[in-house]
Amino acid sequence: MAILSELVLYPIKSCAGISVPEAELSIAGLSVDGVHDREWMLVSREGKFLTQREYPRMALVRPQVADGALVVEAPGMPALRLPLAFDAAAPAMQVQIWDHSVSAADCGDAAAAWFADAIGGPCRLVRFRPDIVRPTSTRWTGGVPAQALFADGYPLLLIGQASLDDLNAKLAASGRAPLPMNRFRPNLVVEGIEAFEEDFVESFDADGVALRPVKPCARCPIPSIDQASGVAGPDPIDILVTYRANPRMEGAVCMGMNCIVIDGVGRRLFVGQQLDASIAF
Question: Dmax of the chain from CA atoms?
Answer without folding.
Answer: 56
